[in-house]
Automatic annotation (TrEMBL):
Catalytic activity: octadecanoyl-CoA + 2 Fe(II)-[cytochrome b5] + O2 + 2 H(+) = (9Z)-octadecenoyl-CoA + 2 Fe(III)-[cytochrome b5] + 2 H2O
Origin superkingdom: Eukaryota
Compartments (UniProt record): Membrane
Cited SMART domains: Cyt-b5
Protein name per its UniProtKB record: Acyl-CoA desaturase
Gene Ontology molecular function, alphabetical: iron ion binding; stearoyl-CoA 9-desaturase activity
Cofactor descriptive note: Expected to bind 2 Fe(2+) ions per subunit.
Family label: Belongs to the fatty acid desaturase type 1 family.
Pfam families for this protein: Cyt-b5 (PF00173), FA_desaturase (PF00487)
Enzyme class: oxidoreductase
Source organism: Aspergillus tamarii
Length: 437
């Protein structure tokens, strides 16, 4: 019986018998007595203590140029195992790969020491489905440091991570093999292989272990962690401001092109992170090369029109948000409604300079002294319909004039324009006709 099924059985028996079910440590507050139980010590060892040990050893072990070259090359190999393999192939199925390429990426990803494909992709799919919520395993809303590596250092309750479908991963024999044999695979690929290559080829066993092994792996870790933290904190949001994901060249430079994260969260199944030719995305480039060589196929890419639509929609949203901060005048729906006679009477008796334009009454009293056309021009249309004069009859006013005028709204006229005054009882069988001057 699997561990998961066994735990469910125990919980069920406990509930039926009245015994309290086991509470996960994350459900209890951190205290001086239990803090060490909240710590994921494997995460601490792998991401902090082992790199610190390597940094200390690097003080006495000189870095040979051949070992430095191997470290750089292997950094890209294992990095692509994560970005092109774990991320774009298995997490998002943005392309399909031959078994040969899959094996290469599975081994390279193991060399990065970031967990198995199945574990990594499961968390990442939850991150996309529940971005910025409590079900997001590395939500930036829990803090920048937490999203960077705190989620690995502190224990997480598996029940608190959003549910996702990984049936396709469970049916992939390469994914299953790597998951079941992860510990020996990661030891061989992350540490033994670079050590043996450096030792056998140029005799630098210690340098291969420290530089091409541990420190190279630590750098890959930090680069990947930046996608969870920095890419949700630094940069622009040209596609969607409703989520924390952002685009920035620095994150892309650190994470082999994964830094154009706002685009990625909007178009996760696209094989690219960067859409412009000049944007740094080496993962995109190697996928294209593999496609040309026949190793990758069914490479997915959203139509440029769809990408452009989302950019335009986001620009509209930004402009609408900026516009909402400005004074555009009282909304038309909130203006009191006057009959034409009421408008004329108020203009004559209140001493205010009221002018009707396009069915809206404007109080231009304060503005009349600075009117470019002169005070007399305004006085001639007080209490009248100045629509034609404002829109070209006298002068065709600019959009700025329209905006300024909107801030002077005080009422609207029922019917929108002047109504001819008919003598009482005269032509009682006829309807009064509107006359817009």
């Amino acid at each position: 019986m699997s561990t998961c099924r066994y735990s469910k059985c125990v919980s069920h028996i406990a509930s039926r018998s009245g015994l309290p079910s086991r509470v996960h440590i994350t459900e209890t507050p951190i205290t001086m007595q239990n803090w060490y139980k909240h710590v994921n010590w494997w995460g601490v060892v792998l991401t902090i203590l082992v790199p610190l040990y390597a940094c200390v050893q690097a003080v006495w072990i000189p870095l040979q140029w051949k070992t430095a070259t191997l470290s750089l090359v292997y950094y890209f190999v294992t990095g692509f195992g994560v970005t092109a393999g774990y991320h774009r192939l298995w997490s998002h199925t943005s392309y399909q790969a031959s078994n040969c390429l899959k094996i290469f990426l599975a081994l390279g990803g193991a060399g990065a020491g970031e967990g198995s494909i199945r574990w990594w992709a499961r968390n990442h799919r939850a991150h996309h489905r529940y971005t910025d919520t409590n079900l997001d395993p590395y939500s930036v809303n829990k803090g920048l440091l937490y999203s960077h590596m705190g989620w690995l250092i502190m224990k997480q309750n598996p029940k608190r991570i959003g549910r996702v479908d990984i049936s396709d991963l469970n049916e992939d024999p390469i994914v299953v093999w790597q998951h079941q044999n992860y510990l020996p695979v990661v030891i061989c690929m992350a540490l033994l292989l670079p050590t043996i290559l450096s030792g056998l080829l140029w005799g630098d066993w210690a340098g291969g272990f420290i530089y091409a092994g541990i420190l190279r792996m630590a750098l890959v870790h930090q680069a990947t962690f930046c996608v969870n933290s920095l890419a949700h904190w630094l940069g622009d949001q040209p596609f969607d401001a409703g989520k924390s994901s952002r685009d920035h060249f620095l994150t892309a430079l650190l994470a082999l092109g994964e830094g154009y994260h706002n685009f990625h969260h909007e178009f996760p199944s696209d094989y690219r992170n960067a859409t412009k030719w000049y944007q740094y995305d080496p993962t995109k480039w190697v996928i294209r090369i593999w496609e040309y060589l026949g190793l990758a196929y069914d490479v997915k890419q959203f139509h440029p029109d769809e990408v452009r639509k989302r950019q335009i929609q986001q620009k509209h949203a930004i402009l609408a948000e900026e516009a909402a901060q400005l004074d555009w005048g009282v909304p038309l729906s909130r203006l009191p409604v006057l009959e034409w006679e009421e408008y004329v009477e108020k203009a004559e008796t209140t001493g205010r300079s009221l002018i009707a334009i396009a069915g809206i009454v404007h109080d231009v009293t304060e503005f009349s002294k600075s009117h470019p056309g002169g005070l007399l021009m305004l006085k001639s249309v007080i209490g009248k319909d100045a629509t034609a004069a404002f829109n070209g009859g006298v002068y065709s006013h600019s959009r700025v004039a329209h905006n300024v005028l909107a801030t002077m709204r005080v009422a609207s006229v029922r019917g929108g324009c002047e109504v001819e005054i008919w003598k009482k009882h005269q032509h009682s069988d006829a309807e009064p006709s509107p006359i817009c001057q």
